Structure formats: structure tokens, C-alpha cells
UniProtKB/TrEMBL annotation:
<feature type="region of interest" description="Disordered">
    <location>
        <begin position="1"/>
        <end position="65"/>
    </location>
</feature>
<feature type="compositionally biased region" description="Low complexity">
    <location>
        <begin position="1"/>
        <end position="12"/>
    </location>
</feature>
<feature type="compositionally biased region" description="Pro residues">
    <location>
        <begin position="47"/>
        <end position="65"/>
    </location>
</feature>
<protein>
    <submittedName>
        <fullName>Uncharacterized protein</fullName>
    </submittedName>
</protein>
<feature type="compositionally biased region" description="Basic and acidic residues">
    <location>
        <begin position="34"/>
        <end position="44"/>
    </location>
</feature>
């Protein structure tokens, strides 16, 4: 009887530890992912033009005329 109780306690502890270990790495991995996503979003709108190089060239062209 004592052995059955120990086995159950070990199984319960193992299950609890496994479940806790999963959410721990998930939490720190989730926050960093959403942060880098919003940063690259504002950058793509600039190169949306014809090309990243011609983008800065067009402004000086309309300035002389």
C-alpha cells in the first residue's frame, strides 16, 4: 500500500513539474516574439516604394523644379 502511495505521489509530482516547465519557457518566448514583429513592420513601409535606393533620390529631384 505504501508503495502505491509513493508511486502516485511521484507521478503527480512529475506531471506537475512537466506542466510547469512547459509554461515557463513558453511565457518568456512569447513576449520577445511580438516585440520584434512590430519593429520590422514600420521598416517595410519605407522600402515599399520602387526601390530602397531611389526612395531618397526622388526627393531631391522635385526640389530643383
Amino acid at each position: 500500500m505504501m508503495t502505491a502511495t509513493v508511486a502516485t505521489a511521484q507521478a503527480a509530482e512529475k506531471g506537475k513539474t512537466e506542466k510547469i516547465a512547459q509554461p515557463e519557457p513558453d511565457a518568456p518566448t512569447a513576449p520577445p516574439e511580438p516585440k520584434p514583429e512590430p519593429k520590422p513592420e514600420p521598416k517595410p513601409p519605407k522600402p515599399k516604394g520602387p526601390n530602397p535606393s531611389p526612395s531618397p533620390t526622388p526627393p531631391p529631384s522635385p526640389t530643383p523644379p
